[in-house]
Design brief:
This protein is an alpha/beta fold. It is elongated and about 60 Å long. The chain is built from nine helices and six strands. Helix 2 packs across helix 5.
Amino acid sequence: MSLPENNKVSDLTGSGDFLAAESPLLSYESSLAEQGIFYAAGIDEAGRGCCAGPVVAAAVLFTRKDCIPAGIFDSKQLSEKKRMELRQKIMNTPGVYYCVAEISPEEIDASDILRATWKAMAKALSGIIPPAEYALVDGNPVKGLPLTSQNIVKGDAKSASIAAASILAKTHRDLYMMEAAKKWQEYQFDVHKGYCTKLHTELIEKYGPCPIHRKTFEPVKSILNPPDMIQGELF
């Protein structure tokens, strides 16, 4: 189950409020432009800490800095309604390139969440090359990206490009989990979105894990392999 959003470009025009050119959220992009780098993409992820569902990464490039929707900010600081509104605005912004990539729970379990996240970011960025020529990444340095990059701690609150990526990654993953909730209704994925809440843990304990649960993540791992069962196998 996936919601593919790869290598899309919007040439739509429209009215509305846009981010001011002097906004602090454009300071990194403006600094790069002064160095001759005009096509810097923002990258962020969603779902690293969940115990169900994929990890999702998004890359966003605004080729027209005069048409970036106002209101873009760290997706965690926005309401669900506002995120979904901005999702549509970002995807319909004139001259925007974006790509969203998923790494499945199975692939996460086969490697680890860090490598899976790096892979998702690399896939998302690759989807908008060209025209992307540089990357601004939220958080810590990322290995394996196809372009030179700069990591920015809490970048989703400092760069409009990263903030837009955080919104697309978060909303894409939320929509995925809402679809999952229709298939596996007993887990209420539409409520907790796969995060390890008390409710989610109780439901896993009651019904056992489903195919999109990450078997190497707690509490799923301990529910599948209770300590008393492991202890018993030693004797």
